[in-house]
Design a protein that fits this description.
Elements (H helix, E strand, L loop, with lengths): L23 H11 L4 E5 L2 E4 H16 L8 E5 L4 H12 L3 E4 L6 H11 L3 E5 L4 H6 L8 E5 L2 H4 L3 H8 L15 E2 H8 L14 E7 L7 E6 H19 L7 E4 L6 H13 L3 E4 L6 H8 L6 E4 L1 H8 L2 H4 L8 E4 L6 H11 L3 E6 L6 E4 L13 E2 L4 E5 L12 E6 L6 E2 L3 H7 L6 E9 L5 E6 L4 E3 L2 E3 L1 H8 L5 E11 L3 E10 L6 H9 L10 E5 L12 H5 L2
Parallel strand pairs: 1-11, 3-4, 3-5, 4-8, 5-6, 6-7, 10-11, 12-13, 13-14, 25-26
Antiparallel strand pairs: 1-2, 8-9, 9-19, 14-15, 15-16, 17-18, 18-20, 20-21, 22-23, 24-25
Helix pairs in contact: 1-2, 2-3, 2-8, 9-10, 12-14
């Protein structure tokens, strides 16, 4: 099928120059050299320069190399957004190892699975979240080195203040509670006395194991190479440059998305630093009042977020009073952005949400709307440079424009495969190199793709397909609905029926009132047969509503 739209927006080249960098450390080396004295990150009022991060990273890399680990060994990071994260990512990669990002809120079982599956040899962990590791230790035969840090290590704050900020004091596990654990400050001190040796790396070497549920089954590691990540950084640079190239100051990126998630990692820990930005680290994005206070302290230019975070900000009165004159890009991803939310955000900030689409398996970006669009489109965008997107039927054949099918992606950002799971890799890769995403979408004749829903989330009512996103988008238009989620439940007559979980914005909302509203907007089989009100909905680490958890309850 012809793809006539590539390169037609803002003069963006159709392809990237992947030869610019041989490895991710080469990207960091370039940024550290060009922006040495520039603030690289701000956290809780303190800033550190590119030069400082460069030195700390080399100290940690030298210390790791002295342990005798082999090139390609896995080293885990289990922390929220903090200075240490931006030290550790370049340090581990510079030393020749593979980064395994871990959600610090993992349970002991989840942590045990990821560390054993990846064969992780060393872990850097914040003491506030080390309780799970303490419980898991007897079941982790491969883990040989534990480095425990306090948030105050790089901030100079006292522990009690930091623990209050994280609201996790009871589970704090200091280094002495973990056998043979080493304090992070000791690593920095000892590493400063050692010699860091640059390791030859290629774009084919693995850089990250990014664990994901993928399109099927148990959590598994998307094996992302240096080339995968470099490609996505360069793709983001080409696509986003029109919005920020005329700035006379370094752009400030708001880093509320967790760096252990692929969205936050690539945007804020790699692309932002490649172009010399200052990253505003938000350690606890769930504390919206404190988050907004941080936003009020300096102009900010790029705000990446998921739909639920946009919702939370828009319901904070102080956020609505911020100065948005510097904001150039509001980037939505991780889950579908709802039109009602996008419209309210643009009304508040005068900036449209630019929706993008990707997965852990695609590093993550694959589709993005033109960065200087004037209004929310409802589409997740066009294929970014060097990327092909096809809409496939169940037999793997491309469907006509406007017809729905599974979104498939081919490009240099597509993963090498699932870590040590060739069987799972074979399920999602086509013979000609397309990754089958598990998402259902349509493509129009201009090349814009619209996500309809996850293939596995589709509800089949009497033979009719019901896509939860469509029903949810309508429900949140009701002024008394804060957020909602739709799943399918067994039904004696229709096979499946639609069930909606709702969090009220206004306590006076009734089921009858909501059903009456939905009746005006949805045909009969799409309307929920069951409505259940909740005080909150289960969410992932980036705030994505977890329908799978609702199905399991």
């Amino acid at each position: 099928m012809q793809k006539p739209w590539l390169g037609q927006y803002n003069g963006i080249p159709e392809t990237i120059d992947l030869e610019r960098f041989n490895s991710i450390p080469a990207i960091f080396d370039s940024a550290f050299a060009r922006f040495t004295d520039r603030p690289m990150a701000i956290n809780m009022g303190k800033s550190m320069t590119y030069g400082e991060f460069d030195q700390y990273s080399k100290h940690v890399a030298a210390w790791l190399q002295d342990l005798g680990l082999q090139k390609g060994d896995r080293v885990a990071i289990m922390m929220p957004n903090c200075f240490q994260y931006l030290i550790l990512v370049p340090a581990i990669l510079r030393a020749g190892y593979i980064v395994t990002n871990i959600n610090p809120l993992y349970t002991p079982d989840e942590l045990t699975h990821q560390l054993n599956d990846s064969g992780t040899k060393a872990i850097f962990i914040l003491e506030n979240f080390a309780h799970a590791l303490e419980v898991s230790l007897p079941n982790l035969p491969n883990l040989k080195h534990i480095i425990v840090s306090s948030l105050g290590d790089m901030l100079g704050f006292k522990g009690n203040i930091v623990n209050f900020i994280l609201r996790n004091v009871k589970k704090m596990v200091p280094a002495w509670r973990l056998p043979s654990a080493i304090p992070f400050k000791q690593v920095l001190t000892e590493g400063a006395k050692k010699n860091y040796q640059a390791v030859p790396l290629t774009r084919d070497d693995l850089a990250f194991l990014q664990y994901t549920g993928g399109t099927t089954g148990v959590s598994k590691g998307a094996a992302l190479t240096h080339g995968n990540i470099i490609a996505n950084v360069l793709q983001a640079e080409l696509w986003c440059d029109p919005a920020i190239k005329d700035l006379t100051v370094p752009p400030v990126f708001v880093s509320a998305l967790p760096l252990y998630h692929i969205f936050g990692l690539t945007v804020n820990a790699l692309y932002a630093l490649h172009i010399g930005s200052t990253v505003l680290l938000i350690t606890n994005p769930r504390d919206i009042p404190a988050f907004v206070k941080d936003l009020a302290k300096q102009p900010f230019h790029v705000l990446p977020a998921v739909n639920t975070l946009f919702v939370a900000l828009l319901h904070n009165e102080a956020f609505k009073k911020l100065d948005f004159s510097s904001l150039r890009v509001a980037l939505g991803g991780g889950m579908a952005v709802q039109k009602a939310v996008a419209d309210q955000f643009q009304k508040t900030t005068d900036v449209p949400i630019c929706e993008a689409y990707g997965l852990s398996e695609t590093s993550p970006a694959a589709l993005m709307n033109p960065i200087k669009l004037e209004a929310f489109t409802g589409y997740t965008g066009l294929p970014i440079p060097s990327t092909e997107v096809a809409i496939l039927d169940d037999d793997g054949k491309e469907v006509p424009y406007g017809a729905s099918g599974e979104i498939a992606i081919r490009g240099p950002q597509v993963m090498a495969g699932y870590w040590q799971r060739p069987d799972e890799t074979a399920k999602v890769m086509t013979a000609d190199g397309f990754f089958r995403s598990g998402d259902i979408g349509i493509m129009n004749e201009q090349g814009f793709v619209k996500i309809i829903d996850r293939k596995k989330d589709m509800v089949l009512v009497s033979g009719f397909n019901v896509y939860p996103n469509e029903v949810e988008d309508v429900a949140v238009m009701h002024p008394k609905v804060l957020e909602c989620a739709v799943i399918g439940v067994p039904d004696e007559y229709s096979g499946e029926a639609v069930k909606m979980f709702v969090v009220k914005k206004d306590a006076s909302l009734t089921e009858h009132e909501l059903q009456h509203f939905l009746k005006d907007h949805l045909t009969g089989y799409k309307r929920p047969k069951h409505i259940e009100f909740r005080t909150e909905l289960p969410k992932s680490n980036v705030g994505k509503i977890l329908r799978k958890d609702l199905r399991g309850q």
